[in-house]
Specification:
mainly beta; Jelly Rolls; six-stranded antiparallel sheet; globular
Length: 315
């Protein structure tokens, strides 16, 4: 199989109680009728959800097949030889605030609590007064935090960060966090679906009852000394890098061949971009196979901007 064109995948929409329709009115998506869509899984290789190519020469091929049988042709030499594609890429629409959560880091003592999950958020759109929550306003002891849970006052301990479009932040495993209402977020994370709910703003679920919390697991994961983390520097000046992926922002003003494009995942942030015979608009994700690395990226009548996500090369 020869990969001469970009690969784009059919999004997998997830209904959530806190979701909305921002993917429709902000990114022009055609969503399932009258559903509250909270998550769109864009690039995923999991037993319960699988990305499938929906255009181009490889239409119908799933991501697991690409990763297991064509890894070097698509993603290049030297990337991690894991059983499944190591990232999960999403867009999140928080019409309402998500619950306060924590994910395991994989460094917890004792029995593993689930798949470790560190993630990075990029704000695609933010309503006025929108905010993210990350870490705490001060260092806490476990008894202090347990007392706040009992009293329903965890909100007073959370570090609130006002945000606008273009802001980003890293959320390592162990960091207490939540996405506030009015945020549309691009999320790149480890391939994990392990989430422990710490606090749910004292609200009731659709059944009129409080939603379940995962307090023993949360307390085993939480970094209670994680105080007032800050947003990442502007991506235009400083690319982001962690142990699991690298991200940079690219501005296109003319047709260009990108030196590190082969094997990367791209998200169009603004404008329209043509690559080979395919055209991508704002909110579209695609993978450029290594075998198609010489294709030029051609912006439309105006300039365009993209996020480029790369897997680290194992040394």
């Amino acid at each position: 199989m020869f990969f001469s064109e970009p690969l784009s995948f059919a999004p997998i929409y997830q209904e959530r109680v806190w979701g909305g329709r921002a993917l429709e009115h902000t990114l022009g998506r055609q969503l399932p009728f009258s559903k509250h869509i909270g998550e769109s899984w864009e690039v995923v290789d999991r037993p319960e959800a699988q990305s499938v190519v929906h255009g181009g020469l490889q239409q119908g091929v799933d991501l697991h097949t690409l990763w297991a049988q064509h890894r070097e042709e698509v993603f290049g030499k030297g990337v991690e030889a894991s059983e499944r594609f190591p990232l999960l890429v999403k867009i999140l629409d928080a019409q309402e605030a998500l619950s306060v959560q924590v994910h395991p880091s994989g460094k917890e003592k004792g029995k593993p609590l689930g798949e470790p999950k560190s993630e990075w958020w990029y704000v695609l759109h933010a309503e006025p007064d929108a905010a993210l929550f990350a870490g705490f306003t001060r260092s806490l002891s476990r008894p202090e935090f347990e007392a706040a849970i009992t009293e329903g006052s965890v909100e007073n301990l959370l570090h609130r960060i006002p945000v606008k479009a273009g802001d980003s932040i890293y959320v390592p495993g162990g960091r207490c966090h939540a996405i506030g209402a009015g945020c549309l977020i691009a999320e790149i994370q480890q391939n994990s679906d392990t989430t422990f709910r710490v606090f749910d703003w004292n609200r009731l679920g659709t059944d009129g009852q409080p939603r379940a919390l995962h307090l023993p697991e949360s307390l085993a994961c939480l970094d209670l000394l994680d105080v007032a983390p800050t947003l990442a520097p502007g991506l235009s000046e400083t690319p982001f890098s962690c142990a699991f992926f690298d991200v940079e922002k690219i501005h296109l003003r003319e047709a260009s061949r990108l030196p590190k494009a082969g094997g990367a995942i791209f998200l169009v942030l603004s404008g329209v971009v043509s690559v080979g015979s395919q055209q991508f608009s704002k909110g579209n994700w695609f993978v450029l196979p290594v075998q198609a690395a010489n294709l030029a990226f051609c912006p439309g009548s105006e300039s365009a901007a993209l996020l480029q996500v790369r897997l680290p090369v194992v040394k």
